[in-house]
Every structure is written in structure tokens, then in C-alpha cells.
Amino acid sequence: MLAVFVLAIVVIIVAWYLLAGRLREPGPTPPGPTPTPSSQPASCPDVMFLSIPGTWESSSNDDPYNPHANPISLMLSVTGPLRAQFPDNRLEVYTVPYVAQFSNPIAIPPDGQASYNNSRTEGTARATNVLAERYKECPLTNYVIAGFSQGAVIAGDIAAQIGAGNGPIPADRVLGVTVIADGRRTGETGPTDPVQVGTVTGVGAEVALRGINVPGISMTGPRPGGFGSLAPKVNSICAPGDMICDAPREALNPVNAIGSLQALIRSAGNPVHALYATNTVDANGTTATQWTVNWAADLIEKAPYPPHS
């Protein structure tokens, strides 16, 4: 009888892991070496702005050109002003549609959401695919990439691949990257680390919880190799006290995995994490979203005007 009970528990745990999904981080997807053409199709934008929303701010079937899954998505505070400032032939704004959820693995009853692993995997695949497709169609288009929260982790992971020469587009086509509340933030300032906007002393939750692996949640730690050659073009914004990106290095103890993960899940909805449209990043009172809009607009204004045929 005891053996049957133990077997049943093992089956339940295995099924739990399988249903929650394994994390599939971006693999090497370098574009093949091709001669740079002298022009590109008239339908191609000069610049593509790739926006990756955060947890609970998108959906798998959202419209990438007119996103409406969450009308108060933080990234809309960035893409809206940019879309209004530049014509379509100059700038394509593409908001990655993905499930954007973070299921609580021990919720009883189950909360019905997609796991973090499945959500992050879908977001990464969709962002990578659209970059690869646009580069194939429009070889002279340049790119600006930005993401918030879970979207910042995805944007950062793709930027790290690009900086290592293994991404879907060449590094020299990337004008810049900004990650807001990046869960894999290290807080370091070495040659492969991003430019820190503002001053916080903590680290991302995935760094603090590195090595924890429960059904549907894999904490992957810092990005090996950082952002590589792309590092000088990458900006990291984090608000003091936001546990997603400013967790004390020892506060989320992997020994207490369940308690630590509960703290992480609660922090996804904490007031600090939800206020990047009002949190300031400099002495001038510039908010995180205003800073991102100004930064992106400057890059777009100065970007090349590729010939079209």
C-alpha cells in the first residue's frame, strides 16, 4: 500500500513538472553571411522598435501593431509617444504578443495561468522569430529593443545572444536596448555589463534565486558573458526597492525555495514595480518611461536612412 502511495506521489510530481514546462532559453540563431545590398524594399521601415511587455501586460493573440490586451501596459507609455512622433516608413513599432503570465506553482486551487517557463519561452521565440523575419526581408533596417519586467528578461536574453554573435540579427544593426526591471540584473559595471540608469545596490530576483527549479519556474541567474559586444548600447533601469531587479543578494534564500518564490511572486505586483511611469531616474525628475522615450527618439532621429527600391 505504501509503495502504491509513493508511486502516486512520484507520478503527480513528474506530471506537475511536465505540465508546467521546461524553460527554453534562446539558442544560437545567427543570420547567415550575406552581401549587404545597396537598397531594400520600399515596404521596409528604416527602424524597427521591438517592444516586449511585462507580466500580465500582453496575450498570445494580441495585435502587435495595436495591442489592447492590457490598456495600461507600461510599454504603451513608451510606444505610444514614439508612434505619434515618427511616420510608419521611418519607424515600425512591433509589440511582441505572448501569454505574459506567471503561475503560482503552489496555488490551491491552481490559478489557471501559464507557467513562467512557458510564458518566457513563448515570448522569447516570438521576439526572436520576428527579428529574424524582418532582417531577412529588410537587411538595411536598424533596431531598437526595449522590455519591461518579464519582457526585460526576454529582451535582455536576446540582446545577450546578439552581443555574442549568436542572435537573430547582427549586433551592428542594433541601435540600442533598454531593459526596465530586469530580473537577471547583476548590478555590475564591467565591460560586458549594461549602462546602469540610476543607482540601486541589489540584484535581479533570478540572480538572488539562482539555481531554484520548481515546476514551471527556473531561476537562471546572470547571463553568461553578459551582453558581449552589445554592452555599451544596453541600458538597465531599476527602481530602488523593486524586488524584481533590486533584491538583496542574500534576501531570497534558495534554501527556502517555496518561501522565496512566494516573495518573488508577490513582488511582481508590488507598488514600486508598478510605478515606472512615475518613478524618476535622474535629478531632473525624468520618469523611467520618459527617459526611454527620449532615448529611443534620439536613436531613431539619428539612424541612417537606407535606400529603398
From TrEMBL:
Taxonomically, the superkingdom here is: Bacteria
**What keywords appear on the UniProt entry?**
Disulfide bond, Hydrolase, Serine esterase
Its signal peptide is none
Question: By its UniProt entry, which SMART domains does this protein fall under?
Answer: Cutinase (SM01110)
SUPFAM superfamilies found in the cross-reference section: alpha/beta-Hydrolases
Q: What GO annotations for molecular function exist for this entry? A: carboxylic ester hydrolase activity
Q: A Pfam family name for this chain?
A: Cutinase
* UniProt family annotation: Belongs to the cutinase family.
Q: What is this protein called?
A: Cutinase
